[in-house]
Design a protein that fits this description.
Length: 525
């Protein structure tokens, strides 16, 4: 991941000022949930068809004001509204994108920190993400070889100029170097109650494929056809090796953050033109022959670059035909705070308008990524949970088919990360204790989407209105493959609100919601 990656210094300054004036740097309270052997803190209560039959409504609430954390209640539709100033009106006759899912990345750092827990608590932690009592992730991201959240730099073939990749091996993924990452992936796939869509992303090729014989400092590939061909073959070898271990992938991103990072950790820099030509001439044809069902995502980088990258790559029909989707990172998260200036989500709406057959997917996000100002974990910070909620909801309302968090777990210092690029995560592990981990508000905010908006759900029309005194509630609505409606509503305000949700023909859900809260409602159409 990259720190603030802005195109001009002017906009950087504006955004930095806006960022500093937000509550990031102020004191905060710790709203984390501690999980230990004595208090394993599992258990989101499940709902049943009975709860929602007829006029029944199931609600789940997470609130800063009280103990509610994905807390279930059963209410019902009413004939008239509660007179609240904020109104949400659903229109299932209007439909948008189909959902792929929500999840996080299975990194070396996650595997290494999870391994420090005793076996029972390891299972508890993973159940929090993947079981029916957890937040039921449906997406997983896997780095292809090392990234900054590894203990160092390694690749799957260190033999110089081995263009045929005869020495390619994923053996390292079953060693302590990676925290036995392959084993973590297999455990997750065995445990999950849902089908998980896995996607893979490379940070860097073997150093010998680069012009500088190094994976740091934003290198480029050696400008030789054998090297391009070999780098494309490396992808096929990866998927073949994982397939032989029983792990199948849904998709791949061409390159993690091709626009570059600070230079302190692995990357392979590509201009949009270089990515276009690599896909068109090498990676597209290569994967079409070995992995024809695999989806290919371009970009996998900040929203701010969307216009140039999509027009360069997708306006070329020979590159376009290999591209299924567009991966997006949130590390202009700063821009989420000045949406009036940067309109990050409008960029997504524009892309959907121009290329409606390409899906958009949030492929990476985390808090605590800005050096000095805002780096590393803030245990239990509510604000960071709300930022997840805002970004996920805004992405969904701008055509994203899903959202992927970065490391599923880290230690209390936000690592391990060999380049000291430490960040926050929804679950932080006390690696000394052996049986203690903490769930941050981010975990619950993510859960309000991931647990209920099942893959195959379709976003529906939602009109949210307020008045001069009361801004509209932030809301998104979906129709699940089982025919239920799911509506997520967020209140980021410092005050509680009385509002209502109308499903014409059925009635009103009347709600009195506390400040700083998020709710998910489930009911029949
Ligand atoms: C690339 O780096 C490796 C490791 O430092 C070294 O063994 C090798 O000789 C280098 N290759 C070239 C072409 O400089």
């Amino acid at each position: 991941m990259a720190p603030v990656n802005m195109t001009t210094s002017v906009s950087s300054v504006i955004l930095l000022v806006a960022f500093l004036s937000t509550p990031h740097t102020s004191a905060y309270s710790d709203y984390s949930t501690k999980c230990s052997q004595d208090s394993p803190c599992m258990g989101v209560q499940s709902w049943s068809k009975d709860d929602i039959s007829g006029n029944g409504v199931v609600s789940y609430t997470t609130s800063q004001e009280n103990e509610d954390r994905l807390t279930k209640r059963v209410t019902s539709f009413e004939e008239s509204d509660n007179g609240g100033w904020q109104k949400i009106k659903l229109d299932p006759s209007v439909t948008y994108q189909k959902i792929q899912g929500f999840g996080g990345a299975l990194t070396d750092a996650a595997a290494i920190t999870i391994n420090t827990l005793n076996p029972e608590m390891q299972t508890k932690l993973l159940e929090n993400y993947y079981s029916a009592e957890g937040i039921e992730y449906t997406v997983g991201r896997v780095p292809i070889a090392s990234c900054d959240f590894s203990t160092g730099v390694y690749s799957y073939d260190e033999t110089e100029n081995d263009f045929e990749l005869n020495d390619f091996s994923i053996a390292v993924d079953s060693t302590e170097i990676t925290g036995n990452k392959l084993n973590l992936i297999k455990t997750v796939l065995e445990m999950t109650v849902n089908k998980i869509s896995l996607f893979a992303s490379p940070w860097a090729p073997p150093a010998w494929m680069t012009q500088t014989n190094s994976t740091v400092g934003n290198p480029s590939l050696r400008d030789e056809p054998e090297v391009y061909q070999s780098w494309a073959l490396y992808f096929s070898k990866f998927f073949e090796a994982y397939r032989n271990e029983g792990v199948d992938f849904w998709a791949v991103t061409v390159q993690n953050e091709p626009a570059g990072n600070t230079g302190a950790w692995q990357d392979l820099k590509m201009s949009p033109e270089q990515q276009r030509d690599f896909v068109k001439n090498y990676l597209g044809p290569q994967l079409e022959s070995t992995d024809p069902d695999l989806k290919i995502m371009m970009h996998d980088d900040q929203r701010v670059h969307l216009p140039t990258w999509t027009s360069t790559i997708l306006d070329d029909k020979d590159a376009n035909k290999y591209i299924d989707g567009i991966g997006l990172h949130w590390y202009s998260e700063v821009e989420d705070y000045v949406t009036w200036a940067t309109k990050p989500f409008d960029k997504m709406n524009d892309v959907n308008g121009k290329y409606p057959d390409k899906f958009m997917m949030g492929t990476e996000a985390c808090n605590g990524f800005i050096p000095i100002i805002d780096q590393g974990p803030k245990l239990g910070d509510w604000n960071r949970g709300e930022r997840y909620g805002f970004d996920i909801m805004s992405d969904l309302n701008a055509w994203a088919v899903g959202w992927t968090d970065w490391n599923i777990a880290l230690d209390l210092s936000g690592g391990p990360n060999w380049a000291k690029n430490v960040v926050d995560a929804p679950i932080l592990i006390d690696t000394e204790a052996g049986d203690v981990f903490y769930k941050n508000p981010m975990f619950y905010y993510l859960g309000h989407f991931s647990k209920f908006i099942k893959p195959g759900s379709v976003r529906i029309g939602v009109e949210s209105t307020g008045n001069l005194i009361s801004a509209p509630m932030e809301a998104a609505g979906f129709l699940t493959p089982d025919g239920e409606m799911v509506v997520v509503v967020m209140n980021r305000d410092i005050a509680g609100h009385k509002y209502n949700i109308e499903l014409p023909g059925k009635g009103f859900i009347n709600v009195d919601v506390p400040k700083h809260s998020i709710q998910t409602f489930i009911f029949e159409q």
